[in-house]
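In the lab's daily routine, each protein ends up as an entry in a very long ledger. A line of letters takes care of the sequence, but it says nothing directly about the fold. The fold becomes a row of whole numbers, each drawn from a learned catalogue of backbone shapes. The protein below has been through that process, and both of its lines are reproduced in full:
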Amino acid sequence: MSYKLLLLGQYIPFEIIESKIDRKPKIFFGKKITLIVYKDSNINKILYDWYREYCYNVVKNRTEFYSELINKKPREIKIKNQKTIWGSCSSKNRLNFCWKIILLPIELLNYIVIHEMCHLVHFNHSKNFWSCLGEIIPDYNERIKEIKIWEKKIFELGDFIKHEKIT
């Protein structure tokens, strides 16, 4: 059966293939996403775990890149299932991100990562914070507007992964 999944702002063809032998799910990602599962597998749980891992890898890559620009590295990165926020930064230099940022286009994901990383330097929303952010993303106001458009759609998905059947 063919479906589509939202990833980095694009709907990608997605298929589920049932295996009668291998009980461990496998996901292959190329021009489409292929999930091979044993019958009666919890597809939503498998996809949720995959999205979180994929998100972690992308966010880790982005934080390593932007760490060079702001001269600060996070102590830890966590991917969570936050209900209403995209990310946060703790006073202990830990960055938390909602796994759903992986559904956003990459330029919006980058904004969220950089926003939280600027809190490693300025733990507030002062003029200095916005200046730090503006040095890296001069068009940050436009990105904030775009995020608000995506936000409603993505957070309406709730706690489950929605894989839509292609008609």
